[in-house]
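Posting for a labmate who doesn't have an account.
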Amino acid sequence: MAKPMKTTEALDLLHQGQKVEDVVLLDFETQKLGFRDALLLSENGFVVPAGNIVYQDLDIQYDPDFDDTTWKGEYGKLSDFLASNQ
């Protein structure tokens, strides 16, 4: 059975290096997260909606290899790509 927990409690445990398994986040739908916390949660199996992530553009480092590249081609869903490579 899944254990109910607040998002801040789960983040505290993850920051301490502990595992968070079989957990349901009680306030997840209304919780606004910084991008680092959102990434930490997603790395540990939680799906973080884009609308829950808040960030300042100044917090994002400029990367000329990525930011100054003109991307060509058509891109599909990552899930389709991963499914075709299994």
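Reply:
Got it, the structure tokens are right above this. The chain has a mean pLDDT of 86.
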